[in-house]
C-alpha cells in the first residue's frame, strides 16, 4: 500500500508537470494569437492594443507556483502521515488512512473551490476587458471547465460524505473494538492474577515438600552416620581390649626379658671394660704400624720414581736404536738398489702405514 501511494504521488506530480507545460504552451499560443489580433485590431482601431495577456500569464504562473507550494506541503504532510502510519497498528493504520483520505479529499475540494473562484474572477475580468469572439469562445471554454469543476466538486463532496460515513462507522467499530479489547484485557489480567496466585501457592507447596524431603534425607543420613560411628566405636573398644590383653602378656614377657638383659648388660659391661683395655693396647700397636707404613710408603714412592726415570731412559734408548736401525737399512737399500726413487716410495708407504690408524687398515 505504501509503495502504491508513493507511485500515485509520483504520477500526480508528473501530471501536474504536464499540466503546467500544457498551460504554458497554451499561454504562449494565446500570446501569439493576441499579438496578431492586436495588430489586426490596431489597424482597424488605430493601433490601440490592450496589454492584458502579459498580466494574465504572470498571474497564472503565480497561481501555479502557489499551487506547487501547496502540493509540496501536502506531500510533506502525507509523508509525515505515512511515517506515522508505518509505526501504528493495523486498526489505527486504517483510521489514519481514512483520516488522510478525508484530509486529501477536503484539500482537493478546497483547491477546486479556489480554482473555480479564480476562474470566475478571470472570467469576469475577461468579460470586462475582452469583447471579441476569441474572448467569448475562451469564456465558453472556461464556463465548461467551471461546470466540469462544479461536477467534480459535487463528486468530491459525495466522496467526502461517503468517507465521513465510513469514518464514523469505522470509528464506532474501532471504539467498540477498543471497549471489547479493554474487557478482554481485564479478563486476561484477572485470569493471570488467579493463575499467578495458583502458581505461587503451588511453588510454595513444592518448596515446603522439597524442604521436608531434604530434612528427612538429612536426618536419615545423620542416623546412618551415627549407627556407623557406634559400630566403629564398638570395634575400637574390642580392639583396645584385645590390645590390653596383648600388652599385659607382653609386659610380663618384657619384664622377664628385662631381667635377663640386665644380667647380660652387667656381663657386657665387664666385657666392655676388658675390650676397652685391649683396644687401648691395640691402638698403641696401630700407631706404631702406621708410622712404619708411612716410612715404607715414602721409600716405595722414591723407588717408583727412580724406576719410572729408568724406564723413560730405556724407552728413549730403544727409540734411538730403532731410528738408527732404520737409517742403516735405508743406507743398505740405497747401496743395493740402483734407483733411489723406489726406496723413497717405500719409505712414503711405510710412513702412510704408520699414520693410518689400525681400524682404517
TrEMBL record:
The Swiss-Prot or TrEMBL record describes its family as follows: Belongs to the BRE1 family.
Catalysed reactions listed for this entry: S-ubiquitinyl-[E2 ubiquitin-conjugating enzyme]-L-cysteine + [acceptor protein]-L-lysine = [E2 ubiquitin-conjugating enzyme]-L-cysteine + N(6)-ubiquitinyl-[acceptor protein]-L-lysine
**Pathway the protein acts in:** Protein modification; protein ubiquitination
Question: Would I find Zinc among this entry's keywords?
Answer: yes
Coiled coil regions, renumbered to chain: 223-334
Where is composition skewed (Basic and acidic residues) in this entry? 16-36, 53-68
List, alphabetically, the InterPro entries matched: E3_ubiquit_lig_Bre1 (IPR013956)
Any idea which GO molecular function terms this record carries? ubiquitin protein ligase activity; zinc ion binding
* Native species: Cherax quadricarinatus (Australian red claw crayfish)
Give the main localization category. Answer: nucleus
Where does this protein reside within or beyond the cell? Nucleus
State its Enzyme Commission number(s).
Answer: 2.3.2.27
Protein name as annotated: E3 ubiquitin protein ligase
> What is the enzyme's class at the highest EC level?
transferase
User: A GO BP term, please?
Assistant: chromatin organization
Instruction: Name the keywords, alphabetized.
Output: Chromatin regulator, Coiled coil, Metal-binding, Nucleus, Transferase, Ubl conjugation pathway, Zinc, Zinc-finger
Task: Quote the biased-composition stretches of kind Acidic residues, using this chain's numbering.
Answer: 1-15
Q: Name one GO cellular component term.
A: HULC complex
The record's region (Disordered) falls at 1-68
